[in-house]
Structure formats: C-alpha cells, structure tokens
Backbone:
DNA sequence: GCCAACGTTGGC
DNA sequence: GCCAACGTTGGC
C-alpha cells in the first residue's frame, strides 16, 4: 500500500465536502507530475487530505483511493474551463481518481507543526516552493501524522 | 495582496 | 533545444 498527500482549497472542495459526498472525484489536475502520481495510485492507497490557501493550513483528514486512474471527463467538455483541445479520447492527457472519505481529524495537523518537528524533515509538503498538488508520502510520516491527529482534541 | 518558486508556452 | 515571458500556486 502506498501513501499520498492531496491538496485542496477548502473554499473549493474541503474535507467536509468529501465527508458529505462520501466519494469525491479528483478531476481538475493539469500538471504532469501530479498526473503521473495519480496514475501510480492503487485502490486502497491512503491519502492525507490537505487544506491549502486557508486560515488553518494543514492535514485535516484521511481518504482512500476507491477508483484508480481513468480519463478525466472535464478535458473533453467544451463547456468546462478545464477543457483541453489537445486531448483526444484515444489518447487522453489527464486522469482522474476517486477518493473515498475515511476520517476527519478533530484538529488539523498543521503545516507549522510539520515544519517544527525534525521527524518530518524531507517531507515534500514542507519544502519551500513545493506547489505539487499530489505527492507521495513516506509510510513513517503518514503513521506519525495519524498519531498526532489522535493526540489532539 | 504580495511575491517567490515553479511550470508552461512560444519565438527563434 | 534554449530561454524569456507569462501564468499559477500557495504560504505569508
């Protein structure tokens, strides 16, 4: 099983939206590196759900990959601002995955906490200028974040 | 709202 | 294939 981190702006789609929907469609990634990671995802992989561009920045819950990469429907939709004229049905450029809600933390494990704890050194999300919205996470970091989240209230 | 750090685009 | 210009991300 692999572990990932996925960023989302809560004003756009946050953990509460995922909780309500139970399964969320990740369908607007237009970055090749992020796409490639999404294509590596396997059913059952765990995902740290991260809130960006908000007052409390950090990891707010856990999800699970419930459907592996498939062509992102928005790339063929001419009415979508995510429409990509260069993408074809035969050779789609962009991929989607489905994410199933698992847990919402009582309190976020904040970016600030991660930066202060030497244990998380090397974790991609705390690297300055790391804008990648989908990234792999080490198992030890994932597990530690789970511990931290239950330690909080 | 600022701006640094990237990624992408397109002229050459 | 280089690289300047431009657009976007995302923390602060």
Residues:
């Amino acid at each position: 099983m692999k572990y990932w981190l996925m960023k989302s702006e809560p004003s756009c789609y946050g953990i509460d939206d995922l909780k309500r929907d139970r399964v969320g469609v990740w369908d607007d990634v237009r970055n090749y590196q992020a796409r490639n990671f999404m294509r590596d995802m396997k059913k059952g992989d765990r995902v740290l759900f991260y809130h960006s561009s908000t007052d409390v920045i950090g990891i707010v819950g856990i999800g699970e990959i419930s459907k592996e990469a498939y062509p992102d429907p928005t790339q063929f939709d001419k009415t979508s601002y995510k429409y990509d004229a260069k993408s074809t049905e035969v050779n789609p450029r962009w991929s989607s995955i489905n994410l199933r809600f698992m847990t919402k933390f009582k309190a976020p494990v904040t970016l600030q906490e991660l930066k202060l704890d030497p244990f998380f050194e090397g974790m991609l999300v705390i690297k300055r200028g790391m804008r990648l919205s989908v990234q792999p996470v080490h198992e030890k970091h994932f597990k530690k974040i789970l511990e931290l989240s239950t330690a909080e209230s």
Remarks:
- The two ends of chain A are 28 Å apart (CA to CA).
- The first strand of chain A starts at residue 3 and ends at 8.
- Chain A is about 25% helix and 35% strand.
